[in-house]
Write a structure and sequence with these properties.
6-stranded antiparallel beta sheet, 0% helix, mainly beta, 49% strand
Amino acid sequence: TFKASELGSVNAAGVTNTTGNRIDVDFERLVFSLDMLGGVDVGDGLRKVATPQRAPGAPQPAIDITYLDEDLRITRGGDGSLFVLVKEGDAGPDKTVRAQL
């Protein structure tokens, strides 16, 4: 789930939210799947579902939105990682958004 972060909050990288562009992220579940291994289709694949629990006192996972328009979103993760997301074509259910770096 996502919600606007409070002004003055500090992320894991030690950056203070002074502009109101931070989104707190609460991971409800993580899904890991493997469909191909070494270029070989593994059939139904391997799948693992995890329910993460944040340790007491751990920083709130968050992203800072650096730039946003109809085709491009640039965000920085709370650990300092940078994400550049480009919309490809029509964002209907059969289209994907690809992460590029």
